[in-house]
Amino acid sequence: MSETAKPKAVILIADGMADRPVEALKGRTPLEAAKTPHMDRLAAEGECGQMDPIAPGVRAGSDTSHLAILGYDPHTYYTGRGPFEAAGIGLEIKGGDICFRCNFSTVDENMVVTDRRAGRISSGTDKLAAALNGMTIDDVTCYFKESVEHRAALVLRGPGLGHEVSDADPHAEGVKVHLAQGKDAASAKAAGVVNEFVKRSYAILKDNPVNLERIKQGRPAANIVLPRGAGVAPHLEAFQARYGFSGAAVVETGLIAGIARYLAMDIPSVAGATGGYDTDEIAIAQAIVNSLKDHDFVLCNYKACDLAGHDGDAMKKVECVEKMDRLVGELMKHLPIPTHLAITADHSTPVSFKDHTGDTVPILIWGPATRPDGVKSFGERPCAAGSLGRIRGQWLMTLLTNLMGTQEKYGA
Amino acid sequence: MSETAKPKAVILIADGMADRPVEALKGRTPLEAAKTPHMDRLAAEGECGQMDPIAPGVRAGSDTSHLAILGYDPHTYYTGRGPFEAAGIGLEIKGGDICFRCNFSTVDENMVVTDRRAGRISSGTDKLAAALNGMTIDDVTCYFKESVEHRAALVLRGPGLGHEVSDADPHAEGVKVHLAQGKDAASAKAAGVVNEFVKRSYAILKDNPVNLERIKQGRPAANIVLPRGAGVAPHLEAFQARYGFSGAAVVETGLIAGIARYLAMDIPSVAGATGGYDTDEIAIAQAIVNSLKDHDFVLCNYKACDLAGHDGDAMKKVECVEKMDRLVGELMKHLPIPTHLAITADHSTPVSFKDHTGDTVPILIWGPATRPDGVKSFGERPCAAGSLGRIRGQWLMTLLTNLMGTQEKYGA
Hints:
The structure is a homodimer of 412-residue chains.
Chain A: E1 2-14, H1 30-33, H2 37-45, E2 47-52, H3 62-69, H4 74-77, H5 82-88, E3 98-107, E4 113-115, H6 125-130, E5 135-137, E6 140-146, E7 151-157, H7 185-205, H8 209-216, E8 224-232, H9 239-243, E9 247-250, H10 254-262, H11 281-291, E10 297-302, H12 304-311, H13 314-334, E11 336-344, E12 361-366, H14 380-384, E13 389-392, H15 396-404
């Protein structure tokens, strides 16, 4: 550990780590069955409890849970994943922007969709997107960026735009591209921009060298962009403005990166952080330590446990938990002091259910201002006996800023 | 103990008593380290838990916390300390009153401030205040009272007054008194009254015998009153109207007395209750017993623990806690039955932090209707294992009126 003047905090989220008892693990959860000496030590030295990421029993998504854990009530701010996905692939999003998920698709000369996914195109979409990005239509600017395979995102920014806009994507092949419609005047303006964007995308893309090459190879051209799923970007106060200190996010998925980018947090790229089973947990720990050099707060999301939950593989999940524990061990070697550290999950992904559930997740908070409570190991049931009691995700930042000593007093 | 027909309740608040582990106390908190046989017995016979005075992690002031504990949500009712301070020095405040903190100051003939604190005048301000109190300006009555040293409070009561009023106090010396300005029509009316009050205060005070004597002694005359920090008094339902029984407050500080007065609770004066380390805890206990003769509810605030926390003195805090336990012991000798008793703190004031923190506070509720839960001693961590779980301050009166059996049923 190294000395630092400023109080710092880290929230370490093992995505989907919490679980239910597994018969093959003798009735233990993967977390309870795994060997986790580092997390057990922190549990013994800190305060433990259980957390409802959103509210008791609510099945949280990773996006809604991370928003709550960062102190932004999703019931107020969450209108869908669209704006965060767009932010996640690298678009700068502002409150009020109208965001669409898009496909690169293939149409014939009559605007009939022949392949909604343009043959699941897997390369060259960056060049196609660059040819469309920044287009202006009347007083609206269109930001456009490719995501994985045939997927992309479109963001409209300009005055007087609504988001009650129907899809241009007909969601079927053999039918013509739909004309987007707006429910009200502001949405009609946005629909008009979408329709013009779709029309121009065809004009611009059909003869793009990427597509000429595909046609030569006998593959469907990605000759049009079809937006769907309109959503308006919420107005979220930036992390630093809300808390008075800077934050970084060491994360492995686009969606969580999108939330962090949305809050204007810094997002270091971490070589070896794959978001898969093979991710480099040591590199992730080092990225956290590195980020703490010029930030007072780091959010980390380690993804692998969730994959094992979705795969229904209890043994694999035990391995992923033990990998998480090695991440913690590496982090503790280099953590500056005074730092308060919270370790938890964003939701349960039980191997028996293969999807998110609304069970509580275990949480520990470690650091100099805590009151150690006698819990000796980190697990769903040991933590339920801890002194934090049963808390909600949206309280976590308040609990941490209290321990950090950075919070304003409410009253005299 | 003596028999009485009516169910009664007492909330005993040891101001700032809760704390964090202290190394010099072998990792115990002052409360855990102190010898508290009386509170330990009540913990063993009652229900224990931990309480967030406001909400998890929120750093409560004494004022916001006491409001919450008495069942008045500060997020709804608290607009600043001004109205409660004014009430605390003995002014009767009504909802809608416009309240100001004031200084007695010194100005020259050109209205230039030469001493903002009138030489920290320490006597005679009661006579000066009496010369101004009750003044009417148009249809507005001005209530004015001295506080400690050069401080005072001004309350404007009348129709159509707003509180968006800038300060007459220029917050600097060598500059002229400011003309208060109002942001809207109602506030402009209040600002006009303030300016006239300031003008008249000079006319009335400059030749007051207190000032003539000061001038003779070569000290700055307290020849003007400069209001600042306008705030509107919230409309708070009186304690008795809300709960259906009468309440008294045995308290040691002006701010808490102000809250009690605001709620029209009776406030007995207690000889020996100094609000300091030397306070007479036996006298306080006897005042509670006395108040229970003609009230069904008593709130008590014992201040000393908070002082030791602010002073960062762990050993002193242990002593203050043990003094609190003697208060409880004396109280239990004479408590009428059936009475339910809650013992808690309004916030933590850790000796390591020397200010309020947002940590939970321990709470015990003792009385015939409780379910004893096996907790054997009164302390932060023993209580965290109790059956009350983690509750909020604003739920306490509802819990007590339930135990008292005085609460209306909600539903059929």
